[in-house]
Amino acid sequence: MCSQLNVFILEDDLIQQQYLKKLLLEQKSKNNWKDIVILETARPNDIIEAVKSKPNNNIYFLDIEIHNNFSSGFELAQEIREYDPFGWIVFVTTHSEFLPITFKYKLTALDFIDKSLPDQEFENRISECVEMAHKNQRRNLSEDLFIFENQQSSFQIPFYEILFFETTELTHKIRLVTKSKYSEFYSTLNEIENQDGRLFKCHKSYVVNLLNIQKVDRVKRIIYFENNEHCLVSRSKVKILLKKMTELQQKLE
């Protein structure tokens, strides 16, 4: 299992690129993080080639505009998601007005940092992002993981983070809803359910993590999780769902 956190920087302004790298190196030294590796580049393809061999434990600091292309960062983020569905993406840009466009590209970002922020605030935001990614990476090494691999996708995520999986409008493309983010990858719900006994296909469009269910509305047939997340449960699956939840709880006691 990989114990290295890979930090990728996409920035075509050499001064800004080196400034960001300097901040990250200072934080690495300050915290004595020997497991962090930094790659900086002005070429999106350099990152894609690196990610193909390092699909886990990554954080990306992406400038949106590269070589006067105002969508380079978004396009790269979309491509990154094909190889690394659960990497942390941070957009660093002078174009804060582009924030709403992240929804158009269906991207979930850890942060959207404006380069024009005061130096201290900018540095703090960068540091907070790396600290979160590093904390999550260390947790991955010691806690219960959901490890998934097929011909199209490969990733690992702490099992306690998983709320549910759902189908998308694209055939065989699945969306994973966790406590902190949304990610998409190629698979089927049946394939996912077979990975772990704590996962249950409660509906033709959903597989849930039984451990994270907070409430089941039997009348409306809705399953509730934290963060106001919810999904449907089929009429024929309600009793089975409740039984499995009880059995699992008894095993844990």
TrEMBL record:
InterPro entries: CheY-like_superfamily, LytR-like, LytTR_DNA-bd_dom, Sig_transdc_resp-reg_receiver
All copies of domain HTH LytTR-type, residue ranges: 146-247
Top-level division of the source organism's lineage: Bacteria
One Gene Ontology term of the molecular function aspect: DNA binding
Assigned keywords, A-Z: Activator, Cytoplasm, Phosphoprotein, Two-component regulatory system
Occurrences of domain Response regulatory (ranges): 6-130
Modified residues (4-aspartylphosphate): D63
Function: Required for high-level post-exponential phase expression of a series of secreted proteins.
Protein name: Response regulator protein
